[in-house]
Write a structure and sequence with these properties.
The structure is a homodimer of 429-residue chains. The first copy, chain A, is of the alpha/beta class and 429 residues long. In chain A, 37% of the residues lie in helices and 26% in strands. The termini of chain A are far apart.
Chain lengths: 429, 429
């Protein structure tokens, strides 16, 4: 009995695209046998002719124009791996309009236009799969969609950006400053020429939006995600973190609270004993807290051609199963509109605070009084280092609402013996 | 448009069954909405009438005889949660014969009779789902079946037994001996009255068989799994492990080597820096090494009613999607017969070895010579503690084949100045 051949079109021969093409051509027989499918890589599009020619495919299967590919009636599944919003969005829309299933690794697009594209897919009885958009090869989207379907998820905490995790690991393990660690990350291929989207937390915020959308079933507005990067973290902060038995990680945190959804990306001190604390170098991890399942964590390589390609191929198999009639894929996730948000000002944290002050009597009394007046209770005070003439003072607060802490800090910074530009880092609670 | 109602029969109201019934009755609307299904808990069977009466279900839905449930033509899906081989096997076979999909958490049965049951399911165009059989609420089976489908998996290393991990964590963190830690585990509900299947490694070996079967696509013969438990581990071994920057964990390791599959469960020293080292208390984790994906780890609660129930319910949704026409579930996994095995004697490890010897000149020279003669190369020698009149000697070897090491150890043990009953623990490499 002949199986229906499923024809695949691949757009984008960059790092991930190259790996997908390589794995697909190399492992095709095994993938087809395991999944009982007949997949074929039919056409590949890239503007760079050189990249196309490296493939063991006849010339008529190679295209410079990706729009030609999404209009080819022979193609059943389009894999979009060019990234960014346009022309990726137009290509995916046209692919769906033309009745093709879509697989993508495009986190920016899914985070910001996911609802529009999923709605179109739903209307056309198709689907979009995006396992590769978050966490590279770590299975995350599928576990959230299927495995944890019966649970109420309370919190998702992720180390979602390999570049910043590599930098923070170097700072922590080699005692480097931020700039030195960034240079090392560049040297080892873990940071791009322009690392701003990574180090400023935007990359992680897109991934958080995708995970939170699935975990809480809500439409997420990018403007409501608090984003703070790691450019202000110093070697000194890393050392103080160690003293209180913590490490600093860039965390992406999504929570469902009674009042709404809270979403934030910021550096945080986490206790050494927490499973996320040992996620080092370029590795990513997502820690999920469910009402019934308790704590679950997924860990692995969050980037890189081959790891990410395994996620693309798992989506490809899922799409192909829909086409070959093994599954009808009616489970296009729905994100409810009208999401309520809790701004970070209303969240409670413990805060680490480091500042410089004149080294004279009365300083401790002065800032302690301001904090006390604002009901900010201090858990720890460390004063043991001098920077030139000044005393370096480190405080850790008990749990306090962010707005109350900020108001108190504003007042403290008005004290004449305190120097400006304090360093503030939240502790994970 | 009316959806087809999918009627569920639940067998076994123990810890997991109770949680499944509770979550199902409590979250049913949300599960149905998310998955676009119309699931109903139709009947529940248990020999204990008291347990049944605790459910908010009318008397005609409660059964003392599980066979009556699997014969009820109204039931679409049977959830088997009684555990053990019989009558579970007969119940599942009859359920399949009667055209019902099956969900089970029964690791013993799937490990030893999985092939027979899957074959029957395949013949009947049905399927058996068993996500809950390994790792409680941690999504493992589905990632292995779907997410990593395009990759070649080389190794699966798991901490698969919560009882032993709890005991080893207590020994390590509280300095307790094995018996004291076991008593504490019992007190806190992490060890059963008869803990032998846990502490002797059999429980972990069943789970390993299931994971390895999926990861390598092979039929696994229980007799070919090397199993060694943790009853011989002492507080002294734990301390020496710490000195070489390791922790001791009961590992279940499956590998695909060029010569065949190697499967083993034994305590192992793993470096502190390895992600598995921080898996503590009753938590489980599975570390997977794939050719393309690299290292991936899944972590969570490996047991307990509610965590395990989330896995059962995710399977239930998958089964219900098959029935309601959302999926045809033709992907019943196939395990190839004729598996070749590599016995542990042919595997290479680094070994930790602790023994007592007379404290006199020539001892070191004597055993060193024997090891040297057998080409067992020593990486570390520690002699710093005395036990009564005797010197305690600790060695760590370089990589050496197990049979060569054992032969050398036999000879060392024949030296008259060496006392019998050495302690041997493999290091994870």
């Amino acid at each position: 009995m002949g199986k229906r051949t499923v024809k695949v079109g691949l757009i984008g021969m960059g790092t991930i695209g190259g790996s997908v093409a390589g794995l697909l051509l190399h492992n095709l027989d095994r993938i087809n046998a395991k999944s009982d499918l007949d997949l074929v890589l039919e056409r590949v599009a890239d503007r760079d002719e050189g990249k196309l020619k490296s493939l063991a495919l006849p010339a008529e299967k190679l295209l410079a124009d990706a729009f030609e590919l999404v209009r080819d009636p022979q193609i059943d599944i389009v894999i979009e791996l060019i990234g960014g919003i346009e022309p990726a969005r137009s290509l995916i829309k046209e692919a769906l309009e033309n009745g093709k299933f879509v697989v993508t690794a495009n986190k920016d697009l899914i985070a910001t236009h996911g609802e529009e594209l999923l709605e179109l897919a739903r209307r056309k009885n198709l689907n979009i799969f995006y396992e590769a958009s978050v966490g590279g090869g770590i299975p995350l989207i599928r576990p959230l969609k299927y495995s944890l379907i019966a649970d109420r998820l309370k919190r998702v905490v992720g180390i979602l950006n390999g570049t910043t995790n590599y930098i923070l690991t170097c700072m922590s393990q080699e005692g480097l400053g931020f700039e030195e660690a960034l240079a090392l990350a560049r040297e080892n291929g873990f940071a791009e020429a322009d690392p701003s989207s990574d180090v400023e937390g935007r990359d992680a915020s897109y991934k958080l939006m995708i995970l939170a959308g699935l975990a809480f079933g809500k439409v997420i507005d990018p403007a409501r995600v608090y984003v703070e990067g790691i450019t202000g973290i110093t070697a000194g902060d890393i050392n103080y973190a160690r003293e209180i038995d913590c490490v600093i990680k860039l965390l992406a945190i999504g929570e469902e609270l009674p009042e709404g959804i809270a979403l934030r990306v910021h550096p945080a001190m986490i206790p050494h004993s927490h499973p996320l604390a040992s996620v080092n170098n370029e590795f990513n991890a997502v820690f999920i807290e469910g009402e019934a399942v308790g704590d679950v964590m997924f860990y692995g390589r969050g980037a890189g051609g081959n790891p990410t390609a395994t996620a693309v191929l798992s989506d490809l198999v899922e799409a192909a199963r829909c086409i070959s009639g093994q599954s009808v894929c009616s489970m296009v996730e729905k994100h409810a509109p009208g999401t309520k948000y809790v701004p970070i000002e209303q969240l409670s944290s413990r805060f680490y605070l480091r500042f410089l002050a004149e080294d004279r009597p009365g300083v401790l009394a002065a800032f302690s009084k301001v904090f006390g007046d604002h009901l900010v209770s201090l858990d720890m005070v460390i004063q043991k280092r001098r920077v030139e003439e000044l005393a370096e003072i480190v405080l850790v607060t008990h749990l306090v609402r962010e707005d109350a802490f900020r108001k108190a800090l504003d007042q403290v910074m008005k004290l004449e013996m305190i120097r400006p530009n304090p360093s503030t880092i939240r502790l994970m609670v």
